[in-house]
Amino acid sequence: MAKAFFRLQKFLRRTQFLLFFLTAAYLMAGSLLLLQRTRLVIQQGSRGTSANEALPVPDGMARVGIVDRRTLQNSRPGPRLLVGLDALQEPALDQRHSPQWLVSRNSELRQLRRRWFHRFISDQEPMQTAGFKGLKHTAEHKGTYMGCFSDDSRERTLKGAVFYDLRKMTVSHCQEACAERAYTYAGLAYGAECYCGNKLPVTASKPEECNSECKGEKGSLCGGVNRLSVYRVEELRAGARRRRNVIYRGCFRAPENLTDTFPASLIQPNLTVEMCSEFCSKKEFPLAVIRGRECYCGYPTGRFSLHDGADGLLCSGMHNTSSAAEGKYCLVYQTPVQDTRCTDRKFLTTKSKVFVALSSFPGAGNTWARHLIEHATGYYTGSYYFDGALYNKGFKGEKDHWRSRRTICVKTHESGKTEIEMFDSAILLIRNPYKSLMAEFNRKYAGHLGYATDRNWKSKEWPDFVNSYASWWASHVLDWLKYGKRLLVVHYEDLKQSLIPKLKEMVEFLNLTVTEDRLLCVENNRDGNFKRSGAKQKDFEPFTQEMKDLINRYILTVDEALRGRNFTGLPREYVPR
């Protein structure tokens, strides 16, 4: 009897295991089938989208990368960040005197990173190779298609200007952007990258190797892996509205030997600024220098740094005579062409032994500092966060994991002992809290390059924002002074006023050396793509007296802490108003 019972028990155990296995297999098969059907429905929906019609995109993408200005004009005011930071809840007013809101803020930032990461991963579905037959160069592209060419990042031919857009890149946007900057050719790669230049790439590739579909234009080709779809856009330049006109840089003393200083020159009896600028633009030089009927093209260099301007009267009447002040002075103009001597960037070939943070309070100019560091060193900077809008602006380190150590330094707004002690050293960027608070409020409601509306400033969000974030400005500096292992304190105002000396100091802190010409190139491209545009807020005082009293106390506290650590105190303009 016992033996029969034992056999029955053994059979039931096997049956239980078998039932469990079959149930699991059934659920897995059902999930796979559901996913396959969902993907099929999405693909069928995509086929119904016309070549001119991009897939629905959040309103926050309206200002990302290269966009049609008409879209910007018609868009309603609102948050512009891809990741929708506006949805995050701000700390409550009654908690402003406790550190609990800092914990809440860190939780919000983690939520931000997770949200962007999932959106980014969902957009990286590989394109079906079988769909290549459906890709074509649509008729509405106004430029002339030149073919598919090999793209070598080390010896890139189209290097005049570079743009990225992971969601809305189209052939037309790339063509228009290059035409507005007076370039002859526009090339697209990886479905989301746009390159401009005046020289056609040498090495042609097979047409089928340009098989990447444009991210913002179904059915159109945008190059491939190390392949460029190249268009000639010279015929568009006459009707293109220039994004940047020729800019007058001033009157300067001419170098002793202009021919040795400038690589290209032109002599024209009736020389005009437009003629000289067009000549230098075709030669891909950012500077057009005029002395009488002589036109010279080149870059800012140690021999001609543009640091010491002369009185404009010394150049007056230059076009009416063969020389000005006996040929000792010249007029200098900035062409629409970008200075490309410092635009090449890459990841570190070996992992960095020193983990460096670029730390600041939000709105203190961290993105601008990253732009300067990347162009000065030639290496990408990383980020503790994932920001698709910044990736589209060329910050490829945004997509790299912040602890990979493949970037020269890592952006962070974090504070607190644990977050700070993860880094071996840090560049601590500090900005006037009045300016920082306004800049962060603008970013919160209008993105990296926009301005908040009058309605935003007059709403109840502004006083709540000041009460919460003012204490964060102070605690951020105090925490880094307390827990930071090795610090370089840089004031935003000093960096803006004395760019090259301060930038050189930052580069040396990163254990790198750079040439003077590269630093001058950075200075020539100092703003990058990060100047705010749009309707600037009117001249009004957004800070009440109560806000000023609160902020001023924090300023005095931080100034005292800096001096206590033998650092230079806050600049005078921080002094309470």
TrEMBL record:
SMART domains xrefs: WSC
Keyword Kinase part of the UniProt annotation: no
Keywords associated with the record: Repeat
Domain called WSC: residue spans: 142-234, 245-342
Family annotation (InterPro entries): P-loop_NTPase, Sialate-O-sulfotransferase, Sulfotransferase_dom, WSC_carb-bd
Pfam families for this protein: Sulfotransfer_1 (PF00685), WSC (PF01822)
Entry GO MF terms: sulfotransferase activity
SUPFAM superfamilies on file: P-loop containing nucleoside triphosphate hydrolases
Assigned protein family: Belongs to the WSCD family.
UniProt xrefs under PANTHER family: SIALATE:O-SULFOTRANSFERASE 1 (PTHR45964:SF8), WSCD FAMILY MEMBER CG9164 (PTHR45964)
Name this polypeptide is given: WSCD1 protein
UniProt source species: Sagittarius serpentarius
Lineage: Eukaryota, Metazoa, Chordata, Craniata, Vertebrata
Gene symbol of the encoding locus: Wscd1
